Amino acid sequence: MVDKLVKELPVPDRGAKITYDSDVSGFGVRVTKGGARAYILNYRIAGRERRYTIGSATEWKATAARKFAADMKAKIRLGHDPLAELEEARNARTVADMCDQFEEDHLPRLRPNTQKQYRQSIHGSARRKGIREHFKHHKVEDLRHADIAEYHRILSRTAPTMANRDLSVISRMLGLAVRWGWRSDNPARGTERNQETKRTRYLSLTEIKALTDALRNLPDQQAANVFRLMLLTGCRKGEALSARWTQFDLSAGIWMKPGSATKQKTVHRVPLSAAAVALLEGSAREGEFVFPGQIEGQPRQEVKKQWENICAAAGLVDDEGNKTVRMHDLRHTYASVLASAGLSLPIIGALLGHSQPATTARYAHLMDDPLRQAAERAAALVGGTEAAEVIDMKRSSG
Predict the structure, then answer these.
(1) To 5 degrees, how large is the angle CA 86–CA 92–CA 93?
(2) CA angle 364-366-369, nearest 5°?
């Protein structure tokens, strides 16, 4: 079979007609009623007769198609089923499928803020591609460690911390893909993460006063109360915004944070100070949420703009007017006040709801301050006594 012969094959009146090659059995060219010509290979495997379409005669030369057919027959004799392998490749799960499954089955179990962060990693933003877009041409089973490492390396050039976050999300999705039977291993494991410096910012007493003064003048007093509750209890922003009145026993001064709202996913029983109780008692009750949103039956969603205004009013900005304090730093400030008051790390950790002692240990150096002051006072007393004894000894000898 040569190209000239293939082009001259007659067009059937209906259906399609196959003309077979004389050298390679099962190999032939199919001509349809519409005049389309394509090379095919008929073969038998496990008692079944199958037909594999090699490609269009306009794209394949006859000699190349014949060689491809001969090579394929050699593989078939070893047990390969090319049509089944092709169908399997077509039906293979893509990274987009993995993202969809992850968002549908796994994300709803996570805290709202975590869901938001994960979706940002998956879908990206106007400034960068996310996981889904970057790997849109990849099958899950074909992903290699080098593919993951390259994505992490590219993103690390401009956003090293975000690169680490995306890597964690990819690894978590691939771990679930192993559980789902989509692949046998997790190629994200072993990718070296970028070095991160833990940022811990505390407000000084002067800054706390400036902040509380600015809160009194904030037009949006609901947002001001969100910040006050965070400062008085050390709670996270998400815990404050999602707080329901049913979680509080103000007569006993207790806040029972549900596991769905806490980072540790466990119920957290928090004693409230008199100031925190007074803040809540003075708040209007308009529905089930302490801070209701504009949509009925839902809590307030965001206070970002109000925080920027407060930082500007309190002078918590740099020379360019950018805020120097994050909302989460109110939690750090609460912990620093406790540590500076000499409270133990286990007590601070219990108030903050830390599950790991190492998380609270970042405040250990603050506890040194009151202890060092006590040590200095003791040294001054001892030093004064020693000086008096030296004077007495000199007088006695004189």
Answers:
(1) 165
(2) 120
Q: Are 326 and 311 in contact (CB under 8 A)?
A: no
Please say whether the beta carbons of 189 and 171 come within 8 A. Answer: yes
Contact 352, 360 (CB under 8 A): yes
Contact 176, 102 (CB under 8 A): yes
Virtual CA dihedral for 335, 339, 344, 350, nearest 10 degrees?
A: -10
For residue 211, give the nearest of 230, 236, 184 by alpha carbon: 230
Both tokens of 371, joined, read 């202890």
Orientation angle between helical segments 329-340 and 345-352, nearest 10 degrees = 150
Look at phi and psi of residue 379 and say left if phi exceeds 0, alpha if psi is from -120 to 50, else beta: alpha
Instruction: Determine the Cα angle at 200 with ends 336 and 330, to 5°.
Output: 55
Look at the alpha carbons of 52, 57, 60, 61 in this order and tell me if their dihedral is positive or negative.
Answer: positive
DSSP codes joined into one string, 255-314:
EEE-TTTSTTSS-EEEEPPHHHHHHHHTS---SSBSSB-SSTTSB----HHHHHHHHHHH
| Predicted local confidence at residue 85, as pLDDT | 76
DSSP β-ladder status, 16-20 and 27-32:
antiparallel
In 3D space, the residue among 113, 106, 104 whose CA is nearest the CA of residue 242 turns out to be: 113
Give the Cα separation of 228 and 279 in Å (integer).
8
Residue with tokens 């601070």: 348
Calculate ∠ Cα 204-239-363, nearest 5°.
35
Beta bridge partners of 41: 27, 52
DSSP for 25-59 reads TTEEEEEETT--EEEEEEEEETTEEEEEEEEETTT
pLDDT value for 43: 92
Residue 16 DSSP SS3? strand
φ and ψ at residue 31, rounded to 5 degrees: -120, 125
- Please give the Cα distance from 324 to 204 (Å, whole number): 13
- Are 269 and 256 in contact by the 8 Å Cβ rule? The answer is yes
How confident is the chain (398 residues) per 10-residue block, as mean pLDDT?
84 91 92 92 89 90 93 90 76 88 90 87 90 92 94 93 94 93 91 81 88 95 96 92 94 87 72 93 93 92 94 89 88 85 81 75 62 65 56 54
**Residue 307 neighbours by CB under 8 Å, 6+ apart:** 223, 227, 323, 327
Q: Which of 94, 81, 17, 22 is nearest to 52 (CA)?
A: 81
The model carries a pTM of 0.56
